[in-house]
Amino acid sequence: MASGDDDDPIIEEIDVYLAKSLADKLYLFQYPVRPSTMTYDDVNHLAAKIKPKQQRVELEMAINTLSPNYCRSKGEQIALNVDGTAYDETNTYSAKMMDKQSFSSIQATTNTSRYAAAVFRKGELHVTPLTGILQMRPSFSYLDKADNKTREREAANEGGDSSQDEAEDDVKAITVRFARPESEQARQRRIQSYEFLQKKQAEEPWVHLHYHGVKDGRSEHERQYLFCQSVDASENSELVKTPKEYLAMLMPPIAEEKVVKPVGPSNVLSMAQLRTLPLGDQVKTLMKNVKVMPFANLMGLLASGTDSTSALRCIQQVALLVQGNWVVKSDVLYPKNTCSPHSGVPAEVLCRGRDFVMWRFTLERSVMRKEITSIIKLPPEDVKEFLEHVAAPRVNRGWEFLLPTDAEFIKKHPDVAHRQHMLWLGIQSKLEKVFNFSKEDFMPKNSPQPEPVHISGEQRLKMAQERAKEKQPSLQKDLDAKRVGSSVHVKQEPVSDREDEPMDTSSPPSSSSVPNGSINGYPCATSPGFDHTNGNGGSPANTSSLELQDFVIKTFRKHFVLTLNEFKRLFNLHLASMPVGRSVFHSISDHMLQDAILLSQCKQIMVPFPAQSTAASDEQKVFGLWETGEEFDKHRRLLYDLFTKNYRVRRNMIQAKLAQEFGDASKADVDRLLNECCSSYAGMWYLKGTIQS
């Protein structure tokens, strides 16, 4: 190092001072289209103005019209095109000749922290930081003004023939449009648009300046501010640094940026970042990215030691079970108040269409895209996106579900599988109403189906009562034996107004290791306790029938009139709301539901639907609460009798019938009756659930 210092001796030391007087208002002007030897110092500057926030400057400079290089005829022609023949105070060229030119600035750089202007005087270097570096280029805005003048003249010539009276008589229709609420994404696009930026720039007012030449006395005075006003070292602390501080300025330490951690990466998923989130957010983020996944794979992606029960609880909130695999819910992918990126279809419509695709995969391994599109009637791009989430195209087989059926999960978690099955039944009921189809439309048609046998409500009630009488001794015997022999303590729960009975959850002695002789938790026809008459088996069915009957009573005391289709929907919602493992219902058929309704003080109302009705068979089965022990029961029965003669009636007909049977019926009684049992449409009253869409 010593030899190096000797070879490169210090010749002179220069003191450096930081001047701050002009630090916030010093600009460097560059003229890139003009050589440095041809300055504008001696050119007359006519006007100057600035927009400080945008660092935008405009200058007007005079043109020497007496120069031999100036073409007078061209200058006059340009002035004529811009201002026209009429004289006006707003004319650009008052001398009828192009005698000035404009310069407009653009920023050479947005970061001027490394740039400064320096002045050397008497062995001292005085440095002033630059506020902006602007490149001044010729502006041709006068050409735009000339084009506008031309268009105005053409418009005046075209409209000159029509008189003022004719213009007044010309009436134009005005279309009133209301702007829809702007989404956050649309607002961001608007803010970044060229039009918005132009509008924001135009909003800042111009600040007009007075130009002083290079040799002007005011310029000489302002140039003195380029020198540091105080030569005291304490005033220039920015330049007085210790070697350690100076080195830190040259090579600053790498500062850890505090970046807000994203909730879920949009395309690349960092597992280290993911595991810092709560378990529910981890599961949701994984399902949003993967779309479909077996539960075993999900547990492999979560941190080791994660409780499978907690993970199972979380995944049921964001996904649905399809063929033993978990598929992310539609409302997670398409949140409320969003729309399709392909077609702009609202999220609610997208969710219904995607739910239909997922529901089809609960029935079979492959679906046809054309068939899906014909039913949900969404753009092809959206339908393709739905299918790509959960399926892959196969030659001559349509779209096949991505993953094999996970029978192991269904076998290991029958309560979860059953709960998901009930959820799908509820979704199916909604989809049938929206898309006007029935599940039978998609079932295999290889074997001929027997014709349905229509049984009246009275016959069904009689058959149910006979079956109950036949089974009562054996059921009571089994129940007594279990009470004595079972060592399992069962929580007692009231199921109705009658004497409380314990809910037996133990398996019958004749069953095998599979509960209730079922496969994956569902009863099969070969089970020892299976009842081939109404599809249930053994004493567990007795327990479930008591629970079912209690649900029927509570439901009809709340709604009074329900179609079978609507009751099934409410029942499925009830099952879905029960805790995992709590449900005592395993396989409830439509016949069991109807029997339970008829045994709960309800009767079927034989509504004569019109021949052209499109109502499904479940929608044409209407049940009403027959007896509650109130005096008002007779009013309901009279109303039900009216609806056995016509599927819709007028209010005055109901009021007249009540007055005929029970004397003067008050308005409050009629309102209560209609509110409990009916719905109104187009001036007519229908029993609940029977209005045809």
From TrEMBL:
Biased composition (Basic and acidic residues): 146-156, 462-483
UniProt keyword list: DNA-directed RNA polymerase, Transcription
Annotated GO biological process: tRNA transcription by RNA polymerase III
Region of interest: Disordered: 146-169, 462-541
Any GO CC annotation of this UniProt entry: RNA polymerase III complex
Keyword flag Transcription: yes
Domain DNA-directed RNA polymerase III subunit RPC5 C-terminal residue range list: 444-693
Cited PANTHER family: DNA-DIRECTED RNA POLYMERASE III SUBUNIT RPC5, DNA-DIRECTED RNA POLYMERASES III 80 KDA POLYPEPTIDE RNA POLYMERASE III SUBUNIT 5
Name of the molecule in the record: DNA-directed RNA polymerase III subunit RPC5
Protein species of origin: Larimichthys crocea (Large yellow croaker)
